[in-house]
TrEMBL record:
Protein name: DUF386 domain-containing protein
Species, as recorded: Mucilaginibacter corticis
InterPro entries reported in the protein's UniProt record: NanQ/TabA/YiaL (IPR004375), NanQ/TabA/YiaL_sf (IPR037012)
Pfam families according to UniProt: DUF386 (PF04074)
A GO cellular component annotation in the UniProt record: cytosol
Length: 150
């Protein structure tokens, strides 16, 4: 897992062949003007934009998730978003087995730690990172870049 601000995005270009494409999009786009929906920006890179009310810790832990096929770059555009995190290797309570079509698996374990993002901050979740996003009050506008691993 990585937590940082968009001003440092160039530092991560070398971590994956499509990170440069993803971060260049994030730094060039008018993020506040983006409407809810899915945007395909390149082969293996898509953006999901949403603006929704924050959720309680309890409700987000029902979908304590991880992915096998994609790396998530989750960027807070507006609002204040808290997320839970735990290493996948330490998660033992499977709620639903891996869904290959939707690329997720859910656990009911409790996060080891919580952290918060505000506008312009992002987190990168790799397949070994189980995460519970969207914890907060009020509207949270965010963007998730799905970067296909292969």
């Amino acid at each position: 897992m990585i937590i940082d601000t968009l001003t440092n995005a160039e530092r991560y270009y070398g971590l994956h062949k499509n990170f440069k494409t993803a971060f260049e999009y994030l730094t060039a786009a008018n993020l506040l003007a983006l409407e809810n929906g899915v945007i395909d920006i390149a082969d293996g890179v898509k953006v999901i934009v949403s603006e929704d009310p924050g959720k309680t810790v309890e409700s987000t832990l029902q979908k304590f998730e991880c992915h096998n096929q994609n790396i998530d770059i989750q960027l807070c555009i507006r609002g204040h978003e808290t997320m839970g995190w735990k290493p996948r290797a330490d998660c033992k309570q499977v709620v639903s087995e891996y869904n290959d079509e939707k690329d997720f698996m859910f656990y009911s374990d409790k996060p080891d730690t919580y952290f918060s993002l505000k506008g312009g901050q992002f987190v990168v979740f790799f397949p070994e990172d189980v995460h519970a996003p969207m914890i907060g009050d009020g509207l949270i506008k965010k963007l998730v870049v799905k970067v296909r691993i292969n």
